[in-house]
Write a structure and sequence with these properties.
Elements: E1 2-6, E2 12-15, E3 20-23, E4 28-32, E5 35-38, E6 64-67, H1 68-72, E7 76-77, H2 82-90, H3 95-114, E8 120-123, E9 133-137, E10 146-150, E11 154-158
Antiparallel strand pairs: 1-2, 1-11, 3-4, 4-10, 5-6, 7-8, 8-9, 9-10
């Protein structure tokens, strides 16, 4: 399994168990998230507690709906400064990649800003000031969120 860590903070943000699609010549990775139920599960074992003298009262259901990527990587919702992140990230890239990144990141950032009212913002668990942001939005008609990552801000780690 491969885990993708934030290049600046070291937070785990994604793994290869979540397929991605590249946008803007690889500047952004788009990842589909899913709502999942987490917590108590009602299992019918065929027994009838009231007929067997047991308590008919069930355990209070503690199930909650969460988005798989947010839950798995303990992402924290947080609106931060995109410009600062892009500036800090650019300094970590090779000269060749930096030129390509700078050429495409403006269009990617403008696209993100155009979706600002539709986006949710997340950061890694440490909430590192200079760490990457993860963006989530709902595609037309979708019931599950889609996530966006700055691909150059991820470091591949084998587990």
């Amino acid at each position: 399994m491969l885990v993708y860590q934030d290049l600046l903070s070291g937070d785990e943000l994604l793994s290869d168990s979540f397929p991605y699609k590249e946008l803007y010549n690889g500047v952004l990775w788009e990842v589909e998230g899913k709502w999942v139920v987490q917590g108590a599960v009602d299992v019918d074992i065929g027994a009838n507690p009231s007929a067997e003298g047991g308590d008919d009262e069930g355990v209070e259901d503690q199930a909650v709906k969460v988005v798989d990527i947010v839950d798995t990587f303990r992402l924290q919702q947080f609106l931060a400064f995109i410009k600062r992140y892009i500036k800090n990230l650019a300094t970590k890239l090779s000269d060749e990649r930096q030129a390509e990144f700078k050429k495409n990141v403006e269009a990617a950032a403008k696209w993100l800003v155009s979706k600002l009212s539709d986006l949710q913002f997340f950061v890694g668990e440490s909430m590192h000031d200079d760490g990457s942001m993860v963006f989530a939005y709902y595609k037309e008609g979708a019931t599950d969120p889609t996530f966006l990552y700055f691909a150059d801000g991820l470091k591949e780690v084998k587990c």
